[in-house]
Structures are given as structure tokens and as C-alpha cells.
Amino acid sequence: MVVIGLTGGIASGKSTVAAQLQELGAKIIDADRLGHRVYEPGTAGFQKVVNAFGHDIVARDGTIDRRVLGGKVFGAPEEMERLTDIVWPEIRKLAAAEISEHRRKDRHGIVVLEAAVLFEARWEDLVDEVWVTTVKIATAVDRLMTRNGLTEEQAMARIQSQMSNRERLARADVKIDNSGTLEELRRRVERQWKQLQKRIATPARRR
Predict the structure, then answer these.
(1) Strand positions, DSSP E, 32-116
(2) What is the pLDDT of residue 187?
């Protein structure tokens, strides 16, 4: 089985690429979805977050009020790091378990771990290849303004708070530019998929 780590900056089209890879036959593990599971009542992650940030983050229905929690960590780097030190290892455990389950079911399959924080959380060792999606900064700004209703300044602040494209690309095995049309992106993904099939057929493909 081959595991691809798919990452990229905000508005770079990671989810679109993941959906296209799924159409081509890959199994997708969405780290964002796993992140929501970490906060579910009754889990180890839930208890750790509540212990760290206080019972006032628990809403009346027993779930974590993400807005209250966000107010404690956004704009506070040390608090955000304290949160990610709890959440990222829990997501990693869930991702590793899903990868193992896919491997048990199909030793010859292809699994994609879609994770915006793949590098930041140091999950590269979970995957065989790292695929990075990128867009020009101006394109990302336009998409964020249209999709999220942000101002240009707000969009730039989101982008600049993340790892740069240059940093990601320096650690990528496969680079996918998504600054063009959806059809252009599809052709690039299909081309990379075909190249992957060739690498799979070569014993020396693994890093």
C-alpha cells in the first residue's frame, strides 16, 4: 500500500485534489474530520482539552464550545501551541489507525492523508510521499475574499500566518500548481496519478 500525504496552504485546493484522487481510486483520510472527532465528549482528547483550558469551554449540551475555546487561543501563540500539543498527537493516533485498517483491507491500495498541518505536526513519517498543492498568493487572496467573505487584509493575514509555499515545496515529492482552471488541475492530478502507478511498479519507489 502507498500512503500519500497531501498538504498545502489555505485556499490551495487540497480538498479538490483529494476529491479527484478519490475518483481515481484512492482512499481519503481527512485530518480535519479526525480533528472534530478529537473534541467529541468521552474521548481522551476532549478530557485533555477541558483539563487544559477549563470547564467554561464546555457548552450546555456537553460539547466543547469551539468559539469559547477559540477566544482563548487565537492571537495567543503560546495557548495555541498548548492546544496543538494536545490535539495533533490525538489526530495522529486516529490517522495511523485508519491507515492500518486500510492496509489490512487492501495491501495494494493507495491512501491519501489530507492534512493542512502535515509538516507542522511532523506527520511525514506516516506517509510514503508528500504531495503539495500551491496557488499564487494573489489567487489565494481572491479565493478567500470570495469564499470566506474576507477583506484583502484579512485574507493576507491568514496566508502569512502559515508556512510559505517555498517552505512546503522544498519538502515536496510531488508539486501540483492550482493557479489555473479546474480542468487544468484535473489534468495535472491525472498526470501525477499515472506517474505514481509507474513508481509503484518500481521496487525502489519508496523514500
Answers:
(1) 110-114
(2) 97
